[in-house]
């Protein structure tokens, strides 16, 4: 069974291993080190790790490495991990020319693509600027 883990962004930094303050808590109240904190965003662990063993969370910015037909040449693309409502699971999204492309983690595994976490949407939004 997948481990349920959350992290939160408090407006200044990411905080790992937060838990809901109570079962009936409003979404913004979480506990961290036995203190209730108010957060701007909460992101769930996908249950998956990148090529370096780093946990992948919603909101992570990842480098997806596609092999090309040229031997030893790779294409790197920046994607964002989101929860895909249509696919009812975590997906990677990439927006290009006002179109959004999605990859499921199953497709990534089937195509044997490497994924590396390089940041998150709160602290590293500059990574998403057009290349």
How is this structure best summarized?
By secondary structure, this protein is mainly beta.
Explained architecture:
It is a single chain. Helix content is 5%, strand content 54%. It has one helix and eleven strands; from the N terminus they run ββββββββββαβ. It has one helix at 105-110; strands at 6-9, 14-20, 29-32, 35-38, 41-49, 55-57, 60-67, 74-84, 89-96, 99-104, 114-120. The longest helix has 6 residues, at 105-110. The model has no long low-confidence stretch (mean pLDDT 84).
Provide the succession of SSEs: EEEEEEEEEEHE
Shape: elongated
- How many DSSP-defined strands? 11
- Residue fraction in strands: over 45%
Question: What number is the mean pLDDT?
Answer: 84
Task: Give a quick account of the main beta sheet: strands, pairing sense, barrel closure.
Answer: 6 strands, antiparallel
Unreliable residue stretches: none
Helicity range:
under 10%
Radius of gyration: 16 Å
Strand order of the largest sheet: 4-3-2-1-5-6
- Report the structural category: mainly beta
Number of helices: 1
Distance between the termini: 38 Å
């Amino acid at each position: 069974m997948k481990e349920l883990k959350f992290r939160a962004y408090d407006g200044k930094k990411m905080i790992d291993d937060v838990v809901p303050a109570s079962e009936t808590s409003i979404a913004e109240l979480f506990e961290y080190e036995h203190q209730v904190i108010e957060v701007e965003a909460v992101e769930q662990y996908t249950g998956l790790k990148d090529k370096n063993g780093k946990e992948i969370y919603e909101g992570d910015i990842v480098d997806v490495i596609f092999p090309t037909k040229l031997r030893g040449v790779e294409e790197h693309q920046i994607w964002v991990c989101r929860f895909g409502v249509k696919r009812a699971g975590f997906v990677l999204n990439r927006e290009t020319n006002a179109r959004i492309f999605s990859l499921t983690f199953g497709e990534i595994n089937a195509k044997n693509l490497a994924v590396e976490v390089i940041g998150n949407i709160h602290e590293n939004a500059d990574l998403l600027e057009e290349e």
